[in-house]
């Protein structure tokens, strides 16, 4: 169950980072509200997952999901640059996440 909470927390991190971008520096109320709610949900689920998962594993997986997810959202929805080097960086992050999961023993 901790892994499910951690994955959902990471997905919520992607949502809040995207909504923060849309908030334009917290000047748009709806996007700002989504950002704050998703941040609280993401941090809350992360804290619950950390009850059983090691700190280093949980935090690394959470930030990795957020980083790769924000990269994908940026490319797909915001028209950000897609280059071979950026894709390789994302692949390396995913590889690190897999290694962290395998090394965690959970």
TrEMBL record:
<protein>
    <recommendedName>
        <fullName>Guanidinium exporter</fullName>
    </recommendedName>
</protein>
<feature type="transmembrane region" description="Helical">
    <location>
        <begin position="84"/>
        <end position="103"/>
    </location>
</feature>
<dbReference type="InterPro" id="IPR045324">
    <property type="entry name" value="Small_multidrug_res"/>
</dbReference>
<keyword id="KW-0813">Transport</keyword>
<keyword id="KW-1133">Transmembrane helix</keyword>
<keyword id="KW-1003">Cell membrane</keyword>
<feature type="transmembrane region" description="Helical">
    <location>
        <begin position="27"/>
        <end position="46"/>
    </location>
</feature>
<dbReference type="Pfam" id="PF00893">
    <property type="entry name" value="Multi_Drug_Res"/>
</dbReference>
<dbReference type="GO" id="GO:1990961">
    <property type="term" value="P:xenobiotic detoxification by transmembrane export across the plasma membrane"/>
</dbReference>
<dbReference type="InterPro" id="IPR000390">
    <property type="entry name" value="Small_drug/metabolite_transptr"/>
</dbReference>
<comment type="similarity">
    <text>Belongs to the drug/metabolite transporter (DMT) superfamily. Small multidrug resistance (SMR) (TC 2.A.7.1) family. Gdx/SugE subfamily.</text>
</comment>
<dbReference type="InterPro" id="IPR037185">
    <property type="entry name" value="EmrE-like"/>
</dbReference>
<dbReference type="GO" id="GO:0022857">
    <property type="term" value="F:transmembrane transporter activity"/>
</dbReference>
<feature type="transmembrane region" description="Helical">
    <location>
        <begin position="58"/>
        <end position="78"/>
    </location>
</feature>
<keyword id="KW-0812">Transmembrane</keyword>
<dbReference type="GO" id="GO:0005886">
    <property type="term" value="C:plasma membrane"/>
</dbReference>
<keyword id="KW-0472">Membrane</keyword>
